[in-house]
Amino acid sequence: MERTITMLIADDSPLTQEILTEAARSTKLPLRFTSTDNGRECLTLLNGANIDLAFIDVHMPELTGTQAFWSARKQGIQTFVTLMSTPPAAEAVDMAIKLRAHEFLFKPFTAGDAIGIIKTYARISAPTKILIVDDSSAVRQIVQKVLHGSVFNCEITEAANGETAADLCRTTEFDVVFLDRNMPGMDGLATMRRLQVIQSSLKIVMMSGEHNLDKERQALDAGARAFLQKPFGSEEVDKVLHAAFGLRSPNLKLQSSEPNFDVAIEGSTIRVAHKASGHIFEYLWSQTPPYLRNAVVRSARAGAIAPGRVAPVAQETALMKLRHAHLLAA
Prior knowledge:
Radius of gyration: 24 Å
Shape: elongated
Number of helices: 11
CATH architecture of the largest domain: 3-Layer(aba) Sandwich
CATH topology of the largest domain: Rossmann fold
Low-confidence stretches: 254-258
Distance between the termini: 46 Å
CATH class of the largest domain: Alpha Beta
CATH superfamily of the largest domain: Response regulator
Order of helices and strands: EHEHEHEHEHEHEHEHEHEHEEEEH
Strand order of the largest sheet: 2-1-3-4-5
């Protein structure tokens, strides 16, 4: 029976909450989710509700998403977190990297983006049975340490040669084999062919301390999922395992140095112009909720994107600009 995953949605945008809720339901995974629209409650839930997986908006009332996330990490909470914001978000992305967030989603995003992250978490948190095959005990210990630094939940078994590896694969079903290319007796290539016959679903990662493009090409042509040059680190292992399991790779970088909107504050009016479509959104802003009032939409006649698709992100962009300008009440 699969373990129930507890998921938190922390965002003051009803549209974003709806997208994430529908994404969670469509995965068909055993999910129990809760939601909040403010940062202070987000922190409370992270601290006390045993949250496994969280989607947290950077900008929320009472406490920002990054402040809530930082406070939770400081208290030892290791929840699998995806931060969300509209571009530009350089400081937020930098904070996400420092706090070891899994991903950063830029709005607007699709339900498919969220589904990919949820399924990635489900696979990463499930046990991954790994067999390390290397004739050097010192190397096996180093590789084991590197694997324990991975985000994957690795259950590790060791073998000193190909024959032992084959015997183990006859009695135990492994997910991934990290296999040394150059071993005495039955070498890595011969061992891989033997293991593929025993367990056809095995994902084999070849590794070597020798830089030999011909041997690397041979291994990949024979069915190895990747070829790692020793020494390698946990980040390289994560990339290889994400690819081997067909998982969405995390994106912790800015999508573009250019913002999607031009924003101008003129007295009590804030104007947000969407560059791609030409639509302009104007609001009267207030220091107290509701912060944006009397919305006026000036649609571009030749715009290929409907104003309704852009409006929610335009509102969040306006709020972000007002917060950054310290114009909203704390």
